[in-house]
Amino acid sequence: MLFNSYIFIFAFLPVSFFIYFYLNQKGFSLLGKGFLIFCSLFFYAWWNPIYLPIILSSMLFNFLISRSLNIHIKNTDSYKKLLLFMGIAFNLTLLAFFKYADFFIENINFVTSSDIPTWNLVLPLAISFFTFQQIAYLVDTYRGESKEYDFLNYALFVTFFPQLIAGPIVHHKEMIPQFASKINLVKNYFHIALGLFIFSIGLFKKVVIADTFATWATNGFDIADKLYFIEAWITSLSYTFQLYFDFSGYTDMAIGAALLFNIKLPFNFNSPYKAVSIQDFWRRWHMTLSRFLKEYIYIPLGGNRLSPKRTYLNLLATFFLAGLWHGAGWTFIAWGLLHGFALIVHRAWAKTNIKIPTLFAWFLTFNFINLSWVFFRAESFDDIVKVISGMIGFNGVLLPGFLQKNLSEYNFDFLNFGGFLSSIQGDITVFFWLILAFIIVFLFKNSNYFHKTFKANTYYSLFFMFISVVSVLKLSGYSEFLYFRF
User: Fold this and answer.
1) Active site positions, annotated
2) What is the pLDDT of residues 314-340, one digit of tens each?
3) Where are the domains of the chain?
């Protein structure tokens, strides 16, 4: 079920909300919590019920392992290490089987020239996200940093539908106490108003902005045989903005929907395209993933506590795994390694104490991010070469036909005329949308700002009604969120 669908907005969400708080009001809080878990599993199974046993078995296994880890008297250190190893191995095996089995077979076939048939496995929805969450929970339990929670609260932590499919990647310390709080069992009208407002912002980002850019990005990456200079840059920038507004839009909708139930999800974006370094970018982009990578991969590998060379190796290993986590493909691995090398360069440059002007630092950072998204989006390295060669200008520049009379006398070999933007099926409105996206990203406050400033007054009400009406009118067809693929 999609957040940006009529059935979710006008049926699933209101029904879940009213029944949940009705049960709480009547004193059936345990039943209300069970109902919310049922709603979350129904939301998950809506895509394909066949995957329901996977998340249920994963949840039950991890809960039992965590319970065993919490029995301190009977657990020796060696036994606890064995339990943790079993838990992590189970989670990674489950993830590897569904996400990487075919990728592994394809690479074996390529290296050995064999013809082992692939299994054509379909990736279960959200497996990357609920796997990471539960691994973090097991590690924290092993360290003695988590309490022993009952199964209902744990199940709700794993399955809570606003964050289940594509995050944010929540931490048990910030979620389970909220589910256990009696205060959160009562309707909070300020949370309801703020939640609907934040949800509407996310919906607008997705259906109005991200889906508009999606057309030009898809045409450029997947359909066009060749891209001229302007077309290639429009293609890359369209995906850069599509991805941001799509994923941050999903996160806003998740945060907004959760607030209706008095649950505060962590912020996941903080104006990442304003970053003035690659390190700054990762402190602003997909912040809960950055937190996981730092706490459960980078620091356990040694972080920056060892030699500079070891620190660089840790960065590279962390972002190699980040790329692999996003997708079973060499383009994702290349994207991760690009970011790993960029962080190494940033760390080495910082030691020189040479300051780069802020505007130039932003320019370098944004263009690196824009370039790296080409690797992230491309289906193959041929697509990467197609887009980047166009961005460099290897295919020349294509201009509108009416300019030929004025410019043809200069006899520039790299100039071509006619069919302007036809390869991406675009027109002059592309530039309007790009300018608008830059203005929103760089001049407007991000949605986190409204959590501190929101007031249920006329101004906010009119703004809410406007973006809600525009967004609902734009709802049409099937428009999946990009991070559902990961």
Assistant:
1) 326
2) 999 999 999 999 999 999 999 999 999
3) 6-186, 209-248+259-457
